């Protein structure tokens, strides 16, 4: 597909293909799911997710050159011109990438030439400046007389500087590889003598032993040749030991001539004889920059000759530098060696150290694809783990498709959820945080009711609470707003993690161990299928073992399992990405401006305190006035009265927490203001605790009158948890540790739910209703029949046999179609259902079967509902 997209010459064509492929994939999946009987709630998310995945994988290659251009442009802004864009497509983006690469190459060449020019000019101007400075200092100090000879020497150095500045105009021709020489007759011994004096005048100590054939006249550009000789003589004098001369010899050789410079220094190793001609290639300990020899070789090559180190003569140590020039000198040169940067390339790292480039403020790193959508809320950290997280989540999906499909909540569901949580936690960014570890442990405990209880409501609520606690833990949220954003981040991570998912998949085939892992998995699966099938067909016993492990699959079953596996894989992968790269759920804290006047929040809080006080006075009046006073005053029965306001009191409790939070943030940080506000808020919290106690007491009276239900017990636990939060506000907030309150409230809520699950609410409610039956003779058998299997052991143990048979009639194995053949598997094992089966097995369930004579349980239900007893 990538090759086909690369061949397209228009990005509009690519976008059309992209949309078409995504729509076809989604349509095929929806059709397949519908034909196989897969529910819409499974088909739709898988089709959408797979269409998004296909879009991401295909679009990644289309926009990759644009992301690379952004990265390279930001590097160029920091002075690095070596980056290039890799693009294989022929569309508008590919052509733009090619033009961008040419522009980057041109800028890199210009930057290199700029550095070379600065380095060359700095080196060439240093020697005449040093010589002229020395002459002028001697004149100023009176060391030498200010006669015409010394003044002419200073004037000669100034003239040379002028000529060098003029030569800068010629350097612009080096960019085109062309420079002009001005050859003429040059007397070598005179030129060498001038260069020796120039080097000595520049302050270079040492003796020179010049042995040149008298009257040797050659054709060369005198200015350039002087440039060469000064550099090589200066280099030799710098390396020659004190008291030893530098030997300079010259002569003719056929149609050309040669010149040799020898010193008694440490010499140049054979492996280094080319390196020393590179810019900055010489030993810094020698006192030079390494540019001199590079410029000297450049001048030699301009004349069509060579400059190189050769082996010294037998019996002599040190270095021997030999110059060989032809008799005819070209007036122009267009060969590659014309430019010094081409003759002796400058190592990038060294050149950058010698002449620092212009450094601009560092730009942000190139943003992955979704940063433009999510912005600072969810940046992606560099170097995220990829393939192994995807593989772990895929294994969880395979496990879910194999064990969760066609099985109800039980052991299999618990194992899948624990595996999903483990795969997301092991690479979590905050996995070593104590808060994260605590949340993960609580989440693991909250999914255990899947195996221990049969109450679907409690089990579902436990899974939701476990997911929330886990997400809050891995994102390291600290505030209620952060808790909320952590929950929203889970579905959003399916889009935020798409670029990361695409990069993780592209790791396969790029080298390393990833391709080997994939090949190993494929080969292992094929080997198991082939040899397992052969042995299963050859041996009946082996075939029974295989059937026990591998489920028999029809086509529709296979499709359903695939959809279930894909859904679980997607949810697990989204959670794993959120744990690996948490969103910034905590907003930037901004200081809250305190109110200028204390009464702006103090008076409202005091008024709320007054309302609470009046309400509590009414509660006390109703309590001490008794039922008759209450019924005569309100016209309500006592049970209706206590039931009427429970929801409002619960809401008032939660609203009080918001008032306390808002008022505490606005109080001025002054002792007097803080004291008054603490008193008023403390009074409000105290009144709220009394309201919580009143609400719980109301619910207790109502349950005594109308019976206990699981929902009422759950509401009791919730109201009690709100009271605990209020108490934490008073204790922890009053101690100045308010930042801990949200997390403490979260953990206490999770523990409260664990306590609710631990008491087995359906069994507890059944026990309380039987207690009420034993005290009043009233029993709501219809409600007992609606309870889950968790209540069966209590009902069978405490009620008379005929009543228990009727109350447990929906739990008989013969009538529980949902508990048919699939529930016999160990994957469906559930402690509540297992105990219920044992309890029902001990009863005579046939006595409760409806017959032609009527339903034997009808009179039983009527009798106990009317309050009669047998």
UniProtKB/TrEMBL annotation:
Record carries keyword Manganese: yes
Cofactor: Mn(2+); Mg(2+)
Predominant localisation class: membrane
Domain named Histidine kinase: residues: 120-329
GO cellular component: plasma membrane
Domain (HAMP): residue spans on this chain: 60-112
Cellular location(s): Cell membrane
Residue ranges crossing the lipid bilayer per the database entry: 45-66, 385-404, 410-427, 434-452, 458-475, 516-538, 558-580, 601-625, 645-663, 675-697, 717-737, 744-764
Molecular-function annotations in GO: ATP binding; phosphoprotein phosphatase activity; phosphorelay sensor kinase activity
UniProtKB keywords: ATP-binding, Cell membrane, Hydrolase, Kinase, Magnesium, Manganese, Membrane, Nucleotide-binding, Phosphoprotein, Protein phosphatase, Stress response, Transferase, Transmembrane, Transmembrane helix, Two-component regulatory system, Virulence
UniProt cross-references to InterPro entries, sorted A to Z: 2C_sensor_his_kinase (IPR050980), DUF4153 (IPR025291), HAMP_dom (IPR003660), HATPase_C_sf (IPR036890), HATPase_dom (IPR003594), His_kinase_dom (IPR005467), HisK_dim/P_dom (IPR003661), HisK_dim/P_sf (IPR036097)
UniProt EC number: 2.7.13.3
CDD domains: HAMP, HATPase, HisKA
Renumbered residue ranges of the record's region Disordered: 840-870
Protein's UniProt name: Signal transduction histidine-protein kinase/phosphatase MprB
Organism per entry: Nocardioides piscis
């Amino acid at each position: 597909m990538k090759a086909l997209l690369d061949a397209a010459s228009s990005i509009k064509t690519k976008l059309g293909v992209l949309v078409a492929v995504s729509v076809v994939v989604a349509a095929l999946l929806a059709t397949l799911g519908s034909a196989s009987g897969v529910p819409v709630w499974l088909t739709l998310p898988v089709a959408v997710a797979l269409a998004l995945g296909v879009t991401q994988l295909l679009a990644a290659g289309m926009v990759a050159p644009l992301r690379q251009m952004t990265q390279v442009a930001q590097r160029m802004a920091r002075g690095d011109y070596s980056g290039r864009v890799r693009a294989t497509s022929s569309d508008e983006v590919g052509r733009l990438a090619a033009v961008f690469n040419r522009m980057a190459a041109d800028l890199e060449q210009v930057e290199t030439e700029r550095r070379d020019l600065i380095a060359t000019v700095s080196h060439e101007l240093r020697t005449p400046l040093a010589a002229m400075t020395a002459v002028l200092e001697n004149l100023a100090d009176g060391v030498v007389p200010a006669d015409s000879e010394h003044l002419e020497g200073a004037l000669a150095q100034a003239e040379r500087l002028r000529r060098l500045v003029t030569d800068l105009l010629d350097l612009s021709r080096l960019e085109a590889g062309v420079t002009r020489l001005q050859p003429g007759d040059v007397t070598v011994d005179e030129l060498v003598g001038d260069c020796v004096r120039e080097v000595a005048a520049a302050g270079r100590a040492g003796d020179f032993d010049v042995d040149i054939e008298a009257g040797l006249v050659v054709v060369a550009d005198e200015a350039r040749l002087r440039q060469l000789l000064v550099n090589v003589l200066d280099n030799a004098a710098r390396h020659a030991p004190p008291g030893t001369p530098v030997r300079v010899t010259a002569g003719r050789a056929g149609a050309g001539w040669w010149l040799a410079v020898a010193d008694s220094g440490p010499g140049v190793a054979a492996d280094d004889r080319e390196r020393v001609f590179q810019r900055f290639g010489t030993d810094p300990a020698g006192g030079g920059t390494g540019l001199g020899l590079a410029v000297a070789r450049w001048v030699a090559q301009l004349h069509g000759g060579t400059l190189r180190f050769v082996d010294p003569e037998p019996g002599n140590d040190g270095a021997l530098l030999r110059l060989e020039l032809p008799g005819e000198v070209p007036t122009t040169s267009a060969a590659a060696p014309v430019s010094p940067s081409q003759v002796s390339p400058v190592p990038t790292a060294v050149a950058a150290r010698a002449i620092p480039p212009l450094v601009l403020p560092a730009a942000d790193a190139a943003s992955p694809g979704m940063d433009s959508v999510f912005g600072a809320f969810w940046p992606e950290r560099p170097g995220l783990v990829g393939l192994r997280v995807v593989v772990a989540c895929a294994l969880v999906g395979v496990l879910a498709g194999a064990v969760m499909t066609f099985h109800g909540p039980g052991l299999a569901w618990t194992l899948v959820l624990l595996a999903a949580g483990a795969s997301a936690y092991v690479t979590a960014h905050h996995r070593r945080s104590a808060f994260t570890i605590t949340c993960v442990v609580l989440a693991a405990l909250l999914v255990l009711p899947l195996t221990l209880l049969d109450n679907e409501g409690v089990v579902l609520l436990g899974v939701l609470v476990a997911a929330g606690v886990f997400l809050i833990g891995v994102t390291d949220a600290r505030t209620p707003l952060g808790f909320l954003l952590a929950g929203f981040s889970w579905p959003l991570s399916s889009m935020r993690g798409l670029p990361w998912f695409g990069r993780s998949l592209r790791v396969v085939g790029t080298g390393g161990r990833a391709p080997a892992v994939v090949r190993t998995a494929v080969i292992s699966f094929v080997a198991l299928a082939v040899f397992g099938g052969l042995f299963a067909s050859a041996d009946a016993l082996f075939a029974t073992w295989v059937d026990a492990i591998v489920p028999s699959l029809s086509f529709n079953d296979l499709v359903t399992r695939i959809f279930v596996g894909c859904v679980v894989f997607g949810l697990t992968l989204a959670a794993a990405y959120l744990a690996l790269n948490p969103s910034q759920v905590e907003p930037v804290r901004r200081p809250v401006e305190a109110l200028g006047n204390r009464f702006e929040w103090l008076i409202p809080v005091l008024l709320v305190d007054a309302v609470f006080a009046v309400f509590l006075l009414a509660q006390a009046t109703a309590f001490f006035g008794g039922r008759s006073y209450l019924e005569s005053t309100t016209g309500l029965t006592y049970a209706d009265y206590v039931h009427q306001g429970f929801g409002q009191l619960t809401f008032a409790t939660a609203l009080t927490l918001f008032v306390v939070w808002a008022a505490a943030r606005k109080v001025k940080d002054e002792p007097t203001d803080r004291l008054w506000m603490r008193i008023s808020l403390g009074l409000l919290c105290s009144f709220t605790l009394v309201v919580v106690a009143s609400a719980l007491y109301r619910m207790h009276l109502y349950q005594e009158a109308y019976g206990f239900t699981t929902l009422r017990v759950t509401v009791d636990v919730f109201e009690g948890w709100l009271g605990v939060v209020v108490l934490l506000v008073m204790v922890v907030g009053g101690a100045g540790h308010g930042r801990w309150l949200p997390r403490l409230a979260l953990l206490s809520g999770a523990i409260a739910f664990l306590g609710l699950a631990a008491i087995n609410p359906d069994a507890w409610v059944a026990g309380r209703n039987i207690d009420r039956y034993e005290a009043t003779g009233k029993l709501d058998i219809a409600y007992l029949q609606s309870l889950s299997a968790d209540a069966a052991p209590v009902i069978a143990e405490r009620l008379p046999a005929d009543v228990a048979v009727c109350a447990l009639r929906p739990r008989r194995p013969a009538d529980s179609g949902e508990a048919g053949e699939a529930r016999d598997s160990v994957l469906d094992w559930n402690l509540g259902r297992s105990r219920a089966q044992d309890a029902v097995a001990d009863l005579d369930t046939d006595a409760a079967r409806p017959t032609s004579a009527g339903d034997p349980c009808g009179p039983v239900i009527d009798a106990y509902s009317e309050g009669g007893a047998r």
